Each structure stands twice: as structure tokens, then as C-alpha cells.
Amino acid sequence: MLTRMHSRLFVAGATLFVLTGIAHAVGQFAPSELGLGERALVAMMRATPAGSSSMTYWNILMDWGAMYGLMSLCFGLALFAVKRAGAEARVLRAFALVAAIAAAGQAAISLAYRTPPPVFLMAPAAVLFAIVAAGRDVRD
User: What phi and psi values does residue 121 have, to the nearest 5 degrees?
Assistant: First the structure.
């Protein structure tokens, strides 16, 4: 069994993944006013095929964005599910390690591409899950 603190940190980290997915969906699909330059860029992306495929750059951008949000949300829900299922401490620590790597990776990629908003949720999630992964269990 995880300590009470590690258990709470696990839940907090899962919550950050869920919030990342929700925030991404809101940011991607909420209506917004586009400037003249932005409208021209969107029109060009919608009209330009990616290489020799039938997909446009707009299709790819929207697809990847929607998948990022959905997968972050679903990963968070899966973390909640494994916790709720009463998994043993060693299983939760293994999931925490994977979650720490996933969150750190998302944060690093966001920084590398200069899109910092996910970093605000994923960097803390990486730290929380790293603490859980390194923690010790307690006997009841």
C-alpha cells in the first residue's frame, strides 16, 4: 500500500493529466476571433495538401491536436482507474514511473517547440509522479 501522501500525489498527478486534456480541447475548439494574417494562414493550411497525400496541413494539425487532448484526458482517466481498482503499491509505482516519463516528455516537447501552456500542468505532474515512483510502500 502506498503512503497516504503518495496516494494523494498520484491522484493529483492524474488530475493534472485530465485537466491538460480538457484545457487542450477548450483551447483548440473554443471559438475565437482570428486576425487577417491568421485567417490567411488557416486558409492556406486548409488548401495545401501534405506531400502527395489527400490530407491538408490543417487536417493534420487538427487531428494531432485533438488526439493530444484526448490521449491526455484518457491517460489521466486510466490512472484514476488503476488507482480505484486497488492496485498494489508496486503496480501504482510502475504506473507512476510511466506517467512521470510521459508528463516530462510532454513538457520537454512543448518547450522545444515553444508552446509552453502544457508545461504548466505537465511539469508538476512529472514531479508528482516521480515522487510516487520513488516512494516506499507501507504495510497495513
Answer: -105, -35
